[in-house]
Design brief:
The complex is a heterodimer of chains A (about 600) and B (about 240). With about 600 residues, chain A is mainly α. In chain A, about 60% of the residues lie in helices and about 0% in strands. A two-stranded antiparallel sheet of chain A has the order 1-2. With about 240 residues, chain B is mainly α. Helices cover about 75% and strands about 5% of the residues of chain B. In chain B, helix 5 runs antiparallel to helix 9. Classes of the chains: A mainly alpha (about 600), B mainly alpha (about 240). At the A-B interface, helix 5, helix 6 and helix 7 of A face helix 1, helix 3 and helix 7 of B.
């Protein structure tokens, strides 16, 4: 057990806690729609993000149809293909993963896990969701404008992003994309400040920082990083919007369009890449760190074993968060840079492998000799470890300049980042939904459907992305509408592409089973009780399930221990909730 | 008994000094920053985030200035005013800077009187701060108008690199927006102080939170930040 100072509060009685001035809703509208309750906001965020996720999933289908069966589907022309790629990427990274982990899980879990009644500023928190929804609507609206959404690729590199050859470049697409991103960032800032301040300043009595569940640590670190990383994207978006709408030349060098020289000169396209990746690389970890945290809790709970090396896990999270701000240019090796720069960024990139490896080892060591229950959340957590390890290892290849340069514009990169920041975090999201659904609804998700969903998603993801590494090593370029006849691409590559597409269609379709399960179990799921997984963290100890507004009734919980007291020798149960005093936990023998 | 132990522990952490007490605060429960209200922590973290916004803007400006192929206009000539036959370089900017820095002084005094629960003086000083802030924005509007009349546009200007106008309008515009929002919130909070909302702990219309004089200090943090940003813009844009 981690020895935390402040043992003396261990025996403090639960005190009635003074009114925290929550806004008490009076009508259906303020209770369920314009709600200031973090839990309702979390559900709103999650449902919106999942809906965007379904749109992005369909876009990936359309893309794969073109890649697998080029020329068969006449409605997918080159423009449409690039629009699908762009929107799929941007939606998944920003509007699904970021919003779901921070807005969804952050809102639901932070107040419950640290023992607060709500976020510190519920009204601002509510605004955060509505602004996020506005950003989503602006983004989706671009599908219905003349010219359609932008097809500049999710990285929006100038000068092509705002020029006429690119779909949406001279129409509304790019403008709506940039405005939507700016709106998203404003909304996120409101939420992110709430998450960070709640963790820092509104914890329950006895909840020290080093007693917090790793889920909270992960979401906290990621929110803080997002507050520092999104500004760079915001500034980049403002400047590109000016370039597009006002005719400035921030990112535009002297350039010709359709043979005609434009009245632009002196701008730096590389500047946008720096701004974008100064946001973009931390963004990878903004998505990954909450996943790290959640998966730590899932593994510990379902293996009935305390997390191995808790302190090291916390410091590794913080180290990854800090390091992720000094590696951004490894996305730009092929853009051309001073070799010493490449050396610096390759070094920092490889250093990140150390804290990351510590985390992977600690997860494995947590499992070692654990009492592993292969529940659906646990299956997803285990799948995450192997998938993340996989994607992380190819990241080591790509972090080296000389290896990256030939691989950078191939499918290898696509396979790498989908493994490490696509599939891996999504597996955690699924695991987390199966894990916390009982707390949100009071009912369990159907287990058989869950296992079906898991196996097809997990094996399917590997069937999709494993062969993609191979395609990349052969030199199959990414972002190409059609490979056509290339001497170095054998016919087997086309068969592999068709295979990947078919698997992708199946994996996509099986997500409908998951969606069905979500709705079906709402009515017909097995009632779960307050703590179905026999977990230690505070959110499972609420007096009512689902927890009401204010979470805890009259008295806030008092925390007596860290979050990982599983299988403590001598204890009556194989778990000791965080709010259980030592005296109750001991049953005759000493267990400390 | 345990209650006692708890308060002893808190007392102990206050007695120790320096790094030890910082560590003790961080490793304790409930609050990482002891006795600091939520709103103040939130404002500090927001300002940190905003620092990255302005930092990115200024770095982008420096990059643009280095990447352009034509010479950068001479700032002390562009921002000169001819008053009574003498051309004074940077005179308007000097006055603007003086006004804004003075407004930081009046804001600091408002915070001081807020701590003393001096309703009238606090409100009056906040109004004065808002007035100085509005004056700053007004002079900025004058400067914009003058430059626009001289043919400066975001996409071109008569003297050199087009990025001069782009960065000028973008950065001063963004800063001016910050000042404008500051003025609006100064007026709102000054009104609350004047009405006595913070003395009666009147509940907020949307938030149903009790009002508190901390709002004055939080407002002050924002205002000083906007001033500080101006110092950097002044140094990098006008003096370089």
């Amino acid at each position: 057990m981690v020895d935390v100072p402040l043992g003396s509060i261990g025996a403090a009685p639960a005190a009635a806690v003074d009114d925290v001035e929550l806004y008490h809703p009076h009508s259906w509208l303020t209770k369920y729609v314009f709600s200031q309750d973090a839990k309702i906001i979390a559900i709103q965020y999650s449902l919106t993000a999942l809906s965007v996720g379904l749109i992005a999933l369909v876009l990936s289908w359309l893309m794969r149809l073109q890649l697998g069966f080029p020329g068969v589907f006449s409605f997918i022309d080159a423009n449409a293909y690039y629009q699908f790629i762009t929107m799929h990427g941007m939606m998944m990274v920003v509007y699904v993963l970021t919003a779901l982990f921070l807005g969804g899980f952050g809102n639901y879990l932070i107040p419950l896990m640290v023992g607060a009644r709500d976020m510190v500023f519920p009204y601002v928190n509510m605004l955060s969701f509505w602004i996020y929804l506005l950003a989503v609507l602006i983004l989706v609206a671009s599908f219905f404008t003349p010219g359609g959404p932008t097809g500049a690729g999710w990285t929006l590199y100038p000068p092509q992003a705002i020029m006429s050859g690119t779909p949406g470049g001279q129409d509304w697409g790019i403008i709506l994309m940039l405005v939507s991103l700016m709106v998203f960032i404003i909304g996120f800032t409101m939420g992110g400040l709430n998450y960070v301040v709640t963790v820092l300043q509104a914890r329950a009595r006895g909840m020290t920082l080093m007693r917090m569940p790793l889920t909270v640590w992960g979401i906290f670190t990621a929110s803080f990083m997002a507050l520092l990383a999104f500004p760079a994207l915001f500034v980049g978006a403002v400047m590109m919007l000016f370039d597009r709408a006002l005719g400035t030349s921030f990112f535009m060098p002297a350039i010709a369009e359709m043979g005609q020289p434009l009245e632009r000169s002196g701008g730096s396209p590389l500047l946008f890449q720096h701004l974008f990746w100064f946001f973009g690389h931390p963004e990878v970890y903004i998505v990954a760190l909450p996943a790290f945290g959640i998966v730590s809790d899932l593994i510990s709970t379902h293996a009935r074993r305390n997390i191995f090396g808790y302190r090291m896990m916390v410091w590794a999270l913080l180290a990854i968060g800090a390091l992720s701000f000094v590696v951004w240019a490894h996305h730009m090796y092929v853009s051309g840079m001073n070799p010493y720069f490449g050396f610096f960024f390759a070094t920092t990139t490889l250093i990140i492998a150390i804290p990351t490896a510590i985390k992977v080892y600690n997860w494995v060591l947590t499992l070692w000799r654990g009492d592993i229950h292969l529940t659906v959340p646990m299956l997803f957590a285990l799948a995450f470890i192997v998938t993340f390890l996989n994607g992380g290892l190819t990241g080591l290849f790509l972090g080296n300049v000389v290896v990256d340069v030939p691989l950078s514009d191939t499918m290898f990169v696509v396979a790498h980042f989908h493994m490490v920041m696509g599939v891996a975090p999504i597996l955690v999201i699924f695991g987390a939904i199966y894990h916390w659904y009982p707390k949100v609804t009071g009912r369990m998700l159907n287990d058989a459907l869950g296992k079906l969903h898991f196996w097809i998603t997990f094996l399917g993801a590997y069937a999709i992305f494993f062969p993609m590494h191979y395609l990349g090593l052969m030199g199959v370029p990414r972002r190409y509408y059609e490979i056509g006849e290339m001497s170095f691409v054998p016919p087997s590559a086309h068969m592999l592409n068709a295979f990947i597409t078919i698997v992708a269609l199946i994996v996509g379709a099986i997500q409908l089973v998951f969606v069905f399960n979500l709705f079906w179990s709402l009515r017909h799921g097995r009632p779960s009780g307050g703590n179905p997984w026999r977990a230690t963290t505070l959110e499972w100890q609420t007096p009512e399930t689902p927890p009401p507004h204010g979470n805890w009734g009259r008295e806030l919980p008092v925390v007596h221990r860290w979050a990982y007291d599983y299988s403590v020798p001598g204890a009556a149960e194989d778990f000791l909730p965080q709010n259980q005093p030592n005296a109750q936990a001991r049953q005759g023998t000493s267990n400390e | 008994m345990a209650e006692q132990a708890f308060s002893n522990l808190q007392a102990a952490s206050h007695e120790t000094s320096g790094l030890r007490s910082v560590a003790a605060d961080f490793s304790s429960d409930r609050q990482a920053f002891k006795n600091v209200p939520w709103g103040k922590v939130m404002m500090w973290i927001f300002l940190l985030s905003d620092t990255f916004v302005f930092g990115s803007f200024l770095i982008a400006y420096m990059t643009a200035r280095m990447s352009t192929t034509v010479p950068w206009p001479n700032a002390s000539e562009v921002f000169a005013l001819t008053i009574a036959g003498t051309t004074l370089p940077l005179i308007l900017i000097a006055i603007m800077t003086f006004v804004l820095i003075s407004s930081s002084g009046t804001m600091a005094m408002a915070v001081n009187y807020g701590y003393r629960r001096d309703r009238r003086k606090t409100a009056a000083l906040m109004l004065l701060t808002a007035l100085l802030g509005a004056t700053f924005v007004g002079m900025q509007a004058f400067e914009w108008t003058k430059l626009i009349h001289e043919g400066v546009r975001p996409w071109e200007n008569p003297w050199g690199a087009a990025q001069f106008g782009s960065t000028f309008f973008m950065i001063t515009g963004f800063h001016g927006t910050h000042v404008t929002f500051g003025v609006i919130f100064l007026l709102i909070i000054a009104r609350k102080v004047w009405r006595g909302d913070f003395d009666q702990e009147r509940k907020g219309f949307f938030t149903s939170r009790k009002g508190n004089y901390e709002a004055v200090e939080i407002m002050g943090l924002y205002w000083h930040f906007v001033d500080l940003v101006w110092v950097f813009i002044f140094a990098f844009f006008y003096l370089w």
